[in-house]
Each structure stands twice: as structure tokens, then as C-alpha cells.
Amino acid sequence: MPNLNTNFNRDIARDIARIYCTLSLMGIEALSKLLVPMKFQKGDFILSEGEVCRAMYYVSRGMVRQYYYKNGKDVTEHFSFEGHICFCIESFLEQEPSRIIVEALENTTVYALPYEAWHVSMLQNNEMELLYRKILEHALISSQEHADSQRFENAQERYERLLNTFPEIVLRAPMLHVASFLQMTPETLSRVRSVLNKEKKSAQ
After folding, report:
1. What percent of the chain shows pLDDT beyond 70?
2. What does the alpha-carbon distance between residue 173 and residue 187 come to, in Å, rounded to a whole number?
3. In this predicted structure, what is the pLDDT of residue 199?
4. Of 72, 102, 125, 183, which residue is 20 to 30 A from 198 by alpha carbon distance?
5. Residues ≥6 apart with Cβ < 8 Å to 40
């Protein structure tokens, strides 16, 4: 009888390959062996402040938030949901304690890609090295795009970009966290949403 966990891991490996980097059957098999399924309840911490980020996490179900504390307030840095990989870049690469916290906003299932196992696999399989690089490139580009949005766009433009690019975040994440992610107060976000709703109604 086939091992169901192994089959699920292969399915997840294929999903990751479709998103980030085409892999051969051998590459899919190598990736599937790295994946560690983990489940979290809403409100659970996937990574706490001061812990070392020892894995990348592919979200197969649910939504997670990355945030940190500044002047006593939590600041949302990133959201990840189905089909996205979540990790704290600096802590993961340096294997040092993280200042970023990763929290499950919903009941969430992730597949961990452990740091040590992945680095061993990269020595044995060039495809794993290529996939690793592609994931890092994707994360860095995404981070740069978000930083540029904060620098160069006004509040309404930032919200419209998020709405057009990642509507799942607006639909599923608490507005308090969305406002923090967009670097605006909840009141400003409420005004922006009100203006856009009025514009939408007048255009109909």
C-alpha cells in the first residue's frame, strides 16, 4: 500500500516546482524527501522572537503573518498564504536569532524545508541548489517591491496595489494588520477604502 504522506509530499513538491523552478522527476523526489508537514492553530507562533529560523515554510493551507515590535507596537512586515513560502531571511541565512515573529492567522498547514537538510541536499543535487536560489531571488524581489511601494506611493496607491496584486490579504487578514503592513493608521485605511467604494459606485 502506498505511503500517503510520501504521496502528499510529492504533490507539494510539484506545486513548489511549478511556482519557483521546473524540476525533473529526480528533483521532485529529492525535494519531497526534505518536506516536513506541520500544522498550526489560529494564533499559534510558527517562529517566536529570539528563535532561530531553521526552515523555510511552504503554506499549503491557511495564512500567516510576519511582524516585529517597534515602540511597543507590532508592525506587520509580510503575509503568506496558499502557494507562498514564508521565512525570515536574515535569521535563516545567518542562523541567528530572529527579531521577526511568524504567527498563524488561520488554522494553517505548512511544509517545512529545514536549513540543514536542504544544504546537504544541495551538495548532492544541483536542482536543489537552483531551486534554493530561485526562492531567495523571489523573496528579495518581493521585499524590494514592497519597500518601493512604501517609498514612492501614497496611501491610496499602496492599498490599490495590494488589492490588485494580493486580494486574498484584503479579504482574509484583519484590517488592523493590513493597515500596519501598508504603513498607515487604521483610520487612514478606512478613509481610503471609503473613497474607493464611492468611486466604484459612481462608476457603475
Report:
1. 96
2. 16
3. 76
4. 183
5. 46, 62, 104, 107, 108, 109, 110
DSSP state of 52: B
63, 69 contact by CB (below 8 A) = no
Residues comprising the chain, all counted:
204
* Phi, psi angles (nearest 5°) of residue 101: -110, 140
Can you tell me the distance from the alpha carbon of 16 to that of 86, in angstroms, rounded to the nearest whole number? 13
SS3 category, 16 = helix
SS3 string, 139-184, reads HHHHHHHHHHHHHHCCHHHHHHHHHHHCHHHHHHCCHHHHHHHCCC
Q: What is the pLDDT of residues 146-195, one digit of tens each?
A: 999 889 999 999 999 999 999 999 999 999 999 999 999 999 999 999 98
